Amino acid sequence: MKCNLCPRKCNADREKQEGVCRMPWDIYAARAALHMWEEPCISGENGSGAVFFTGCTLRCVFCQNHEIAAGKRGQKIDESHLAEIFLKLQQQKANNINLVTPTQYVLPIIAAVKKAKAQGLKIPVVYNTSGYERVETLKNLEGIVDVYLPDFKYTDTTYAKRYSNAPDYFDVTKAALAEMVRQHPAPQFTDKQEAAVRGIEEGIMTGGVIVRHLMLPGLLKDTKAVIRYLYETYGDSIYISIMNQYTPMPFVENIPELNRKVTHREYDKAVDYAIGLGVVNGFIQEGGTAKESFIPEFSGEGLE
Predict the structure, then answer these.
(1) How far is CA 86 from the centre of its chain?
(2) Does residue 17 belong to any structural domain of this protein?
(3) In this structure, which of 8, 26, 118, 156 has its CB flanked by the most CB atoms within 10 Å?
(4) How far apart, in Å, do the first and last CA atoms of the chain sit?
């Protein structure tokens, strides 16, 4: 089958060769476990049931999950096994199933979710993505995905090309986000009665869109442009998560502007700007969060 799931549209026969995502058609994953470092309404107290898939369609030069994005970690699993993993995470009291970097496996993931739901999967499904998605692919996820958790990295074509080799990133991600919001036009959360029945804390998101922006060092102007676009376009119908956890990895040593953390001053200016615009539905990170503890061990945990 020729693969054009992502905006790269590489047309590779992934049953015979790797696509631009560096992966074959078979599902590969590197970790499936409770994850505590998402937004509070995703992780809650019990954790998000995060499945980290191997490969990536974007592969930014500063990638925080480089080992799996580059296809260097992961083990092969089939649809039935993936469905079992979903159900096991639910048994562990995960608040949701969190599909991390799933684009290259959308079709088998859909099949696995359907199998798991037929066997009792009831918790929400979260689609955790770079934001670089085809609208046609996202339409297949309607009725499958409950919460979209996309990145929105840049508005500036120069940065998108330089750091993600995707000069069309802004236009593609704008269209993708519009489709996500069409599917989930308003945020929804657990109420007290539902929370008690499901055994989870109050305030877990069960439907909606949270847009993440990972602030990069020196890009305050573009960060402001991202926040402005999101708020002016969607207002309070989405949540905006402004992240300061960027960690310079060893492979950016030769990219001086990226080889440092975001300063407190830069981040505070971004947050103040969002508040000044009127952003209410948002998440911020407090000082000291930019460290490698946000990057989990991709040891195959939970894939047995």
Answers:
(1) 17
(2) no
(3) 8
(4) 28
Task: Tell me, yes or no, whether 267 lies in a domain.
Answer: yes
Which is nearest to 8 in space by CA: 176, 133, 131? 133
Q: How far apart are CA 112 and CA 83, in angstroms?
A: 5
Q: Is 251 helix (H, G, I), strand (E, B) or coil?
A: helix
Write out the two tokens for 53.
């898939």
At 286 the three-state DSSP class reads: coil
- Pairing status of strand 125-129 against strand 97-100: parallel
- Residue type present at position 113: V
C-alpha–C-alpha distance, residues 74 and 6, integer Å: 21
Give the pLDDT confidence score for residue 195 in this predicted structure.
Answer: 57
Q: Smallest Cα–Cα separation from 25: which of 51, 49, 7, 4?
A: 4
Q: Which domain holds residue 233?
A: 30-294
pLDDT of residue 196: 55
Show Cβ contacts of residue 78 under 8 Å, excluding neighbours closer than 6 positions.
Answer: 26, 27, 108
* Token pair 């996500």 in the structure block, residue: 180
Residue 287 is predicted with a pLDDT of 61
**Cα gap 108→23, rounded to integer Å:** 14
Q: How far is CA 127 from CA 100, 158, 162, 196, 246, in A?
A: 7, 27, 26, 25, 21
| Pairing of the two strands 205-214 and 239-243 | parallel
The answer to whether 54 touches 28, Cβ cutoff 8 Å, is: yes
Number of domains in the chain: 1
CB within 8 Å of 62: residues ≥ 6 apart: 163, 216, 246, 248, 249, 252, 255, 258
User: Residue 290: what pLDDT?
Assistant: 43
Residue ranges in the chain whose pLDDT is less than 50: 290-292
Is the pTM higher than 0.90? The answer reads: yes
Give the pLDDT confidence score for residue 268 in this predicted structure: 97
Per-residue pLDDT tens over the stretch 85-109: 999 999 999 999 999 999 999 999 9
User: Is residue 20 situated within a structural domain?
Assistant: no
Q: What is the DSSP letter of 176?
A: H
